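Exercise: predict the fold of this chain.
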Amino acid sequence: MSQGVVFLLETFVGLFVLALLLRFFLQAVRAPARNPLSNFVAALTDFAVRPARRVVPGLWGYDLSSLVLAWLLQIALMGVVLSIKGYDFAAPVGVAAVGLICVAGVNLLKTFIYIVLVATIIQAVLSWINPYSPVAPILNAMTRPFLGVFRRRIPPIGGVDLSPLFVLVVCQLLLMWPIAYLEAVFVRFL
């Protein structure tokens, strides 16, 4: 019974956290707003983000309410899942709270890296199959900051842009070393 509840919680809350992160990321990279993906993400998250804007101010042109909501939801999800699984918070309450806050932040970073990975893969495949897809401009906006770093240093070889390959390798390395290390360090606080 508890496994089913944990699965449902992680699935639905995780997908909503993903939508909130996508909303923040799309706004941060100034992705085109008139796009099916942008419209879907905005429609899905508006009910939570609009009231949160009254409490969480923007900063330097970034709408932080969706990011803060994603973080708070991730903290709540982790706390509920751990308590359902019967996790005994052996650490003092303050230390456990710091651990939850930090692990939730690391999980958001991990989700962000996965967003970049998936966007890069889809964009690379679409560039060969259908470069004029309606999703292409939004994927271009999402991956441009990361691909641009490698495009400036590595010219196309035989007309093939290898920058997506390097972005994928760097993302995998980030997931393997610093993210996994931070996760292991902060889990000890729980």
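Check your answer against the key: The chain has one domain: 2-187.
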